[in-house]
Amino acid sequence: MGCVAAAVALTAVLIGGYYYVEPSLPDASELRDVRLQIPLRIYTRDGRLMAQFGEQMRTPVPYRQIPQLLINAVLAAEDDRFFEHPGVDVAGILRGAFRYIATGGTERVAGGSTITQQVARTTNLLSRDYSLVRKFKEWILALRIEREFTKQEILELYLNTYFFGKSSYGVVAAARTYFGKPLSELTLSEAAILAGIPKGPSIMNPIASPENAKRRRAYVLRRMRELGEISDAEYQAALNEPIESHWHGLELETEAPYVAEMVRLEMLRRFGPAALTAGLRVTTTVDSRLQTAANSAIHEALDAYDRRHGYRGPIGHVDLPAGTASGNVDEERLRQALADYRPTLGLLTGVVLDADDLNADVYLPARGRQTIGLDAVAWASRYINDDRVGPRPNAVSSVLAPGDIVRFREKADGSLELAQLPDVQGAFVALDPQDGAVVALNGGYDFYLSSYNRATQARRQPGSGFKPFVYSAALENGFTTATIVNDAPLALDDPGLEATWKPENYDHKYMGEIRLREALVHSENAAAVRVIRQAGISSTVQYVRRFGFDETATPANASLVLGAGGVAPISLAAGYAVFANGGRRVTPYFIDRVEDIDGNVVYQARPAFACVEKLRAEDAADTEADCVRPEEENAHTVPASGPVDQTPLIDDVAELYPRLRLAPRVITPQNAYLMTDMMQDVVRRGTGAAAYRELHRDDLAGKTGTTNDLRDAWFTGFNADVVASGWVGFDEERPLGGREQGGVTAIPMWISFMREALEGMPLHELERPTGIVDVRINPRTGLVANGTTADSMFEKFRIDHVPPAEPDTPYSSPGTDAGPASSSDLTRSIFQ
Fold first, then answer.
1. Dihedral, 266, 272, 278, 279 alpha carbons, nearest 10
2. Is 450 a catalytic residue?
3. Which of 78, 156, 524, 595 is labelled catalytic?
4. Is 189 known to be catalytic?
5. Model confidence pLDDT, tens digit, residues 740-772
6. How much is the pTM?
């Protein structure tokens, strides 16, 4: 009777408890709306992974794609009766209850939790506090889940949501983290290791404790053998398989951390914190090949600058005990001394153990004791200041001393070379001039040392790199490519400047009266200042702002022509894109599209294109097949000023197939062509000649830029396919050194990038528009040559801007100096 009474009482308690807690329980169907936290993933336009953001690494997988081997291992470890019980294991509950009573409720004991119960806990339908009430709720909810879902759906939810340690949620992320492979490639041993982790994710994973993982694997394998799922031979083979204990993580295929951070911030701006957990897939405009080229280019250029300015000494020092030189090395002590020096860009950090004239012994944690020779330090002349270095070293001991903590670079042949991180910084950005797509961007030497993005955030003086915009304005204000300007010293009392200003040429030499083309080719500052003053400062400022430059970039005084304003590299590249594409302003953008977890496009970029050849035929019904509208082909004046259409980075309503648009014209095709032609001469025979010597391409145009105090060095250049801008300078804005200028310091990174970017590509120059004529001129006067001019040469002009003819020219108009009298006379002048 006592047992019956106890049973009745227990039943009453359970029934009463059910009706007490049941109203407070969520509906099991809510699990169908569970949103898994899946990280934000960012890809290049060619599908290579650039970055992943989000604390929880998770990749959902449908049940049918989970290997049966792994399912068997998980069931053997966690719930071998999963396909038989109704959601709760009564036998397990009774065992837990008796244990709880036996301990007087003082110990937390296992209560036979099934996989279904664990799903109820891990999906946040219940609190995680430990109590009998919570456990009772868990049982009831488990029964509800079993009624709502199939067994396969429950198991799929469990395997996709459970925490497997090391920020890995779900079996896909866990397999990648611990073994670096997809589920389909897991071995029996690896499946058993994964199945054993849920028992204690932070202590049972093979990275945290290989020993714990090994013991847990043995248990899972034994249970699988007892259940008849593996043979004795399979059991023994898996048991003897070594356990890896290093983190594989997600392999990044393209290094572009500055772009990735730009994307992360934009996604947070648009979607809030959910952007990092909603499983968004962002495809950028970055090309992986060009990004890799940009990375190499900036590293090579900054390393080269750094070497030219000498070795600054060790990054640290440690006192070595006696006997170290003879081989008594306390490796643990040395490892601790090096622990604070993070590996950077593949550089190895080590401690000098001994050094003499010919050799030095160094300790590297990854390679042990190594010997280097004089060739490893041959470059390391002592840094004195930014203009001076000491003599080249003739002994290793003059560079290295015992106890020095130094960095080394491993060369292609495996030998070591002394290295150091540059103090100088740089930035590089490349755009597609037809739509403004960012194809490569690097904002500094190493993002992980400094996340400040100099390509987009640094507003530095562009120096002479700004002259093309001012010269473009001059061509619209009475100048031609052959206009004579005076390159001679001058002093200005400009009301926009605080004191008398005496602009000087870089080499302090002056060419006297020269043509406008030559003033740009040789980057003569004095001539440039006269150009802006004669063209009109106010009208020039208004014109230049059409390229997208703001007030910071365009000071309203003559210093504008020497780049006295502040410009970010990406803005300068966008300005040059106007020349490269024939006169249209494109807006830089770096996100091509965003997809949700189901592959639906939630955002598609909608850039304005400069060339209608890029527009889809069905979307370009109102445009023509070439890159300019007919009414603009013969336009010889600057379009009326006014706001330029801006395309937002992300539209409020994304369109999968948006109507593509033609970018607004901001300068005439003729102006763009003439400026490009002049900048091609800059590359062929002017301050940018190094680019022509190295690349041997006739379609390249560009301009160097160096500030008067040598704080900034630039080179920006292009062909019709790509425009790129490189900058070098110190963050604290101090001089780079007396010999550093755009054509020496910055142009190497541009050359290195363009060599890769244009490899195998045909020449692609800006197409010559109608309205441009070649006329033979006298180079000394800039006027149309007469038959007696012995050294006449051809120059390009807009047809209505041909200069007047020299006196006694037979085809000159009677009584006027306005140029050729008729089209037939003009034709004769062109071929004279």
1. 10
2. no
3. 78
4. no
5. 999 999 999 999 999 999 999 999 999 999 999
6. 0.78
